Amino acid sequence: MTTYDEMHAKAGTVREHYAAYGRWLADQPGDVMKSRRDEAEMIFRRVGITFAVYGAKDEDGSGTERLIPFDLIPRIIPAHEWREMEKGLKQRVTALNRFVHDVYHEQAILKAGIVPSEQVFRNAQFRPEMMGVAVAGDIYSHIAGIDIVRAANPDGSGTYYVLEDNLRVPSGVSYMLENRKMMMRLFPELFAGHRIAPVAHYPDLLLETLRAVAPSGVNEPSVVVLTPGMYNSAYFEHAFLAQQMGVELVEGKDLFVKDQYLYMRTTQGPRRVDVIYRRVDDDFLDPQVFRPDSTLGCAGLLGVYRAGNVTLCNAIGTGVADDKSIYPYVPKMIEFYLGEKPILNNVPTYLCREEGDLKYVLDHLDELVVKEVHGAGGYGMLVGPAATRAEVEAFRGALKANPSNYIAQPTLALSSCPTFVDSGIAPRHIDLRPFVLSGTTVQMVPGGLTRVALKEGSLVVNSSQGGGTKDTWVLEA
Amino acid sequence: MSSVLRSELPEPPAAAAPAVVDVVHETVYRYARPVELAQHMAFLRPRDDATQRVRAFELDIEPRPAQRSDTLDAFGNTRTLFALTAPHDALRVTARSRVQALPPPAPAAAPAWEDARARWRYVSGVAPEPAVPFVFASPLLPLHAALRAWAEPSFTPGRPLDEAALELMHRLHAGFRYDPDATHVGTPVLEAFERRAGVCQDFAHVMIAALRALGLAARYVSGYLLTEPPPGQPRLRGADASHAWVAVALPQPEGPGAWLELDPTNDCVAGPGHVRLATGRDYGDVTPLRGVIRGGSRHELAVSVDSQPAG
Question: In this predicted complex, what is the ipTM?
Fold first, then answer.
């Protein structure tokens, strides 16, 4: 199978945008890289940049906190590639926001028969409670994480594809910021020798976005970050972003509703809340309307939201647009709402609920990646070419039992990037998650979070499945 | 906390029910300790639709709520949200409705059930039918193969949808026991199905889930049933209860389609004695009264419904 390496072209030559880095790397003795890696790990551990693994236990049976392995070798994106990708991301996220608005208002794209209405109505993330609700600026997904991979073409060139859209509560941006800080600390000379686009202003852009979508008439909006609490896998990130933005980090029990407004309890008495950057899933936001057993949200919140007295970022019900079964229709959304040709490519997708597609998938299980429609975190998926006979057969049973729960895609030859592993420097597969912010305008910091599958040959980059991260450099031309 | 409204087994509706019905639906919570803050949501105003008109409606809430808003939800029901911000040790919600039954429309044509199912399927470039949101699994009603297998014998090839649905209702009524102790308000549909017992909510859920498992569109109707006292006895206040039944979508050659309302608890087609409160995908969309409170400790709940011919 043809592969595409981000650093090396076919004949083992170094690509132009990696040239200066390649020369630097060739000069580094192996033990320097090793000691830098140990230093990085020690700092991450000391600062407490961790995530929690659900269902996992340490030897002592208590802690579930892990470090995300950090790789020293950056992923570098040349300026012209980023310019194109940025245009494509703005286009895609704009269309997705239009789609969510449409679903909860006119449903024009359903009435036109372009998106099958069942893709909306059978999705558990469709929230009838949001029908007709006016949200500030008609923006639903203020913070979107779009997962992008580069795959090899038969001629050896590479093409970027969008793998999935994360429009609910995408996480990982704190690692993007911390990875950059770490690289600047470990290798200051590299930053002197390259023109690398900065990312450190992400919290400023985020706060600007959140303030821009405050309820109308609020001049000095009060913004909070709502977290489910310290047991959530991304709690570090919630605390980090609140601290970086200089806003309060709150839990559901800190909030209450009175007179159609939302308040937080503070040591100086109740204070109004205008914008919530919420890292709590829809189901748990308001026990009055959604899961009645939730203690993570605030009763009556939806009433305040409907009255237009608070903005939720992201809005309720965005999951209707980032489901894996709606993904195949995103290019059509772009054409329908914007009248434009999609700039970013979609991966061809088989919908197992369609009889013809299902037959093809069952006949080609060993070539395809099969995913659960509602799955996340790399669980419940089959990577055909990497699976054993027994795994394939077990999955075949699950697939036949509930075909509509699955989609399948061809196995893309994900691009690789040199990675510092125990055996030295070796290629490992990577992806990219840029974070797209939608407020008055659509903006983002250059690059995003690069995740790397540390196991040789593995395509699963999720941190809960043994993935690591890299710093992502977008070169300023 | 949610209010639990269970049906007593009512008599089948009288053949000639009066055209106008008055309903008083009262819900009382008594709390062991004062509630400091409460947020409630009610679906207690009857619907205005092709079958009935609301002539008068009043919703009294004691103590007086600090806020109250009445809006339409996604399914066309009136949703009342209210908040109580002063400490209170009881809550009384009284809905008084006067509803006029409209003359029944001309009987709808019933296509073969497979043709109805085909109408709910996506066709590229064609607008979906209004009933399509009621074809799929909903939060309380996942689709189960067991329910499909149970329903299938009534759905023989080419059989008109109304005939097949009526038979399914007869089978449900005959094969299931009405038993308020068999289930509770949160019993999953599959459990009620396996026990072959429950109350009107379970009967309606089982039938809806079975119809949807076959690819048909069906929705949940919450409401009241006017009951006739035994001859010679006075009507007892509060002897009635809130009720629930099923509406099956019958696609029509033209227009938005019709709904056939079937009451599996009483094995009958819904008539003028059935008063529609709200309709949704399942009970969770149209729970008559639910809320979240801070404080209160334990609570006691009393619900009474009194419906009688207006006069």
Answer: 0.81
